[in-house]
Structure formats: C-alpha cells, structure tokens
Amino acid sequence: MTDDDDRVFKALADPSRRFLLDLLFARDGRTLTELESELEMTRFGVAKHLRVLEEAGLVVTRRSGREKLHFLNPVPIRLIHDRWIDKYTEHHITALVDLKNTLEREEPS
C-alpha cells in the first residue's frame, strides 16, 4: 500500500474528518470559522483535522483576501474506491446475481 493510501485511510478513519468532508461536499469553499460552527470542537481541533485532510489530499485550500477557503478533492477517495473496493465487489456481486438467477430457475413451480 502506498503512503498516499495510508494517509487517505487514516484521514477517513475519524468521524469528525468524514463529517468535515460531508460539509464540504454539501457546499465547497468554506472557511475555518464556518466549518468550526458545525462541530462541537475547538477552532484548534477543527484546524488540526483539516490539516490531516489536506495532507491526505482530500482537502485543498485557496486564499481569498484574508480568508482561507477549503474545498473537497474527491480524487483520492475515487482512487481508493477503484483500487480497494471496486475490484472486490464486482466479482462478488456478479457471482451473487448468477447464483440468484440459477436458484430461481431451479425452483419448482
């Protein structure tokens, strides 16, 4: 597993960080103050979680005047999905659908 994957999994492991990602998904470009108002956590705590998300590449920032805006970057999540989730689910889903169809054909009427 790559270091990037490790950072993404670590970032996603915390419910507060997942909540921050949900907030940014709902409306991108939020300030620390806006995000802090949604969590029962200190400004420092929210900033620390945002830093972990930024280090994992899940959040990118842009300065707008005196404010720092936070934006969701869904690419690392998609890469995790493609590498670790999709390849494991596709075969199993196909196998379950095939089994279901076979059993339905074999049922006595």
Binned, the helix content reads 55-70%
**Major sheet summary line:** 2 strands, antiparallel
Beta-strand content:
5-15%
Class computed from helices, strands and strand pairing = mainly alpha
- By CATH, the topology is Arc Repressor Mutant, subunit A
Shape: elongated
Low-confidence segments, given as residue ranges, are none
For the record, give the distance between the C-alpha atoms at the N and C termini, rounded to a whole number: 50 Å
CATH homologous superfamily annotation: Winged helix-like DNA-binding domain superfamily/Winged helix DNA-binding domain
Q: How many individual helices?
A: 5
Total beta-strand segments: 2
Biggest sheet strand line-up = 1-2
Q: Helix and strand succession?
A: HHHHEEH
Mean pLDDT comes to: 90
Instruction: Based on the coordinates given, report the CATH architecture.
Output: Orthogonal Bundle
Give the tally of structural domains: 1
Radius of gyration: 20 Å
